[in-house]
Design goal:
nine-stranded mixed beta sheet, 14 helices, globular, alpha/beta, 586 residues, binds zinc ion
């Protein structure tokens, strides 16, 4: 793709074209100030290149520095930074080198910046199959074998069924049959009801004590997210040494409502727990655990506070350094952008749909515009926004604080988590094996996806938009502090608290690393700019990021962290505490 293809135009053009107006007119993003320095690279309208050579950074938080960092972190050579793989290892080397260059204190293990997590990787072994009365079900469409039923790797299920009888077991989290009734059978259980609604996240409720069941089958594929349906084709990870995973307990399988009806011979909603099924089920699958390719590491550093009375207290700032790695097959980059812009405005959060003729026309027009200069096949999940943007912002904040003339009173703990995409595993491990006393962490400000906030690509977006989740859940003072600080800013950020609503279906309070701190009663706030067509797509690349907006977010967090660190008194925790091992509930 030639360098002079107008990016901002690209994104703006997608929505603009969808809205039927000429792209040029819709370019809103002013070129990053620093970019003007490289006038030869950035002619108006703003153009962001496919490649960008990192420049020496300056002490201040700038869009140009963010570009230097993000084009490094999200480059193809990082291979999508999947935890347990070389790409993630290389990214953590870069982050630690930057912390070292800034003169921060190592806060990992053994005097290093690193904390290696015990990670096990599993992938579905070839040959997985499931059939009902001899009729095969389609993997990923009709059925999805689960790598584990609980939130943690307590065991790796292996399933071996030969003409197994079926029984209706009841509803997960509700009335159900006994283990004796389940013995040797395929137990069909309805999905749990959470917050008054049926929820496909079967792990949100304690698992049924049916150790003798041959398998637990839940008819929830139809209501599951795309990423869950992709599970059989993706890597799953767990926080356990490979050799130490017991293989006990029933396998967990998700199926479509239709498949469950065929197993039972009736609609499960019409049955009483214990009702015998009509069909016989056969099949097998195995999630073979294996060792990681490269250590998965959290990277942790301290900016020591100036006041000895409180500099053993820490304000945490965090982001995650991993992403999804490399896809099983390459796709046409521009077609993916065009299709998702029209059909999946929230990327992988939205289901794959069949476009109407009118939608096809828009997709084709976008595709033509985007790839006027040829096709680019793509298979790398670069994770520029998720969470390369948070990682770049974390480094910019650290650099600004480390080079400032004065230090805050309390210390700042910079935590770059690994394995967030694998289930918040890096944060889970750090909070269970903290390298500073856990109760000395007074708050955690977590950034995940702070690179796309344009009005045309994000619900409620705009140049100063910021989504905030959890700021008052454990400490009203934290939420008040953030709003009061923002009110003093010119111009202020425009907060969107809508995602923080109790029971919100997106469940974002539970979907990033901050939750692992909140479960121990540490006040947190989750900062994001939101979902967009590139979310968990191979198209999540650095040239689409709004660096001015990311710089605003980084400055905002910088100021909030200083305010918390300099407070006379430690934030008061006045919110309800939970059992740290209980499943998360928004
Ligand atoms: Zn993320």
């Amino acid at each position: 793709m030639p360098i002079n293809r107008p990016l901002a135009c690209t994104t703006a053009a997608l929505a603009a074209l969808a809205a039927g107006c000429a792209p040029a007119a819709t370019v809103r993003q002013a070129p990053p100030a620093a970019a003007q320095a490289g006038a030869e690279t950035y002619s108006a309208p703003a153009v962001l290149p496919l490649r960008f050579t990192a420049q020496p950074t300056v002490p201040q938080i700038t869009p140009r520095d963010l570009m230097s960092r993000l084009y490094t972190i999200a480059d193809d050579s990082m291979m999508g930074r999947q935890a347990g793989h070389r790409g993630n290892y290389m990214a953590t080397e870069y982050i630690a080198a930057e912390f070292r260059r800034m003169g921060l204190e190592p806060a990992g293990e053994n005097g290093t910046f690193f904390q290696t997590i015990p990670l096990t990787i599993t992938r579905l072994a070839p040959g997985a199959a499931l059939s009902v009365d001899g009729a095969a079900l389609r993997l990923g469409n009709d059925w999805v074998p689960l790598p584990h039923l609980e939130t943690r790797f307590t065991y790796v299920p292996r399933m071996q069924l030969r003409d197994a009888p079926v029984v209706f077991g009841g509803r997960l989290g509700g009335a159900m049959i006994s283990d004796a009734q389940a013995a040797g059978k395929v137990v069909v259980m309805l999905p749990p009801i959470v917050g008054g609604a049926v929820n496909y996240r079967v792990w949100l409720v304690p698992q049924p004590e049916l150790p003798s069941a041959a398998a637990i089958v839940v008819p929830s594929v139809d209501i599951s997210s795309q990423s869950l349906r992709n599970l059989p084709f993706a890597q799953s990870s767990g926080l356990t040494e490979p050799g130490r995973i017991p293989t006990r307990g029933p396998a967990g399988v998700l199926v479509t409502a239709e498949a469950a009806r065929r197993m039972l011979g009736a609609d499960p909603a019409t049955l009483q727990p214990g009702a015998a099924g009509r069909a016989r089920v056969s099949g097998a699958f195995d999630y073979a655990p294996r060792a990681v390719e490269a250590p998965a590491r959290n990277v942790v550093a301290i900016l020591r506070g100036s006041d000895p009375a409180v500099n053993r207290q820490y304000v945490g700032i965090s982001a995650h350094n991993d992403h999804e790695g490399i896809a099983d097959r390459a796709v046409d980059h521009d077609s993916t952008v065009a299709y998702n812009t029209v059909m999946r405005p929230q990327g992988a959060n939205d289901p794959v749909g069949t476009p109407t003729p009118e939608q096809w026309a828009r997709i084709r027009a976008l595709r033509e515009r985007l790839s006027a200069d040829g096709t680019r096949m793509d298979s790398i999940y670069n994770g520029a926004d998720d969470d390369g943007s948070g990682t770049a912002a974390l480094l910019e904040i650290a650099e600004a604080m480390a080079t400032a003339r004065t230090r805050p009173r309390r210390s700042i703990l910079f935590i770059s988590h690994t394995a967030e995409e694998s289930g918040l595993l890096g944060a889970e491990h750090f909070t269970e094996n903290p390298t500073v006393p856990r109760d000395s962490i007074v708050a955690v400000l977590n950034m995940d996806m702070v690179g796309h906030g344009r009005a045309e690509e994000v619900r409620g977006g705009g140049p100063y938009s910021i989504q905030m989740i959890g700021s008052r859940r454990l400490s009203t003072e934290l939420g008040d502090l953030i709003d009061a600080l923002n009110a003093r800013r010119t111009p202020p950020m425009v907060p969107d608290y809508s995602w923080d609503a109790a029971g919100h279906p997106a469940n974002r309070y539970c979907r990033s690393d901050h939750f692992m701190y909140a479960r121990f009663g540490i006040p947190i706030t989750y900062f994001s700019l939101g979902y967009h067509p590139h979310y968990h797509m191979v198209t999540d690349e650095p040239q689409y990021i709004d660096y001015d907006h990311t710089a605003r977010v980084a400055s905002f967090l910088h100021d909030i962290a200083l305010e918390v660190a300099n407070r006379p008194a430690r934030l008061v925790v006045d919110g309800p505490r939970q059992d740290p091992n209980a499943p998360c509930r928004q």
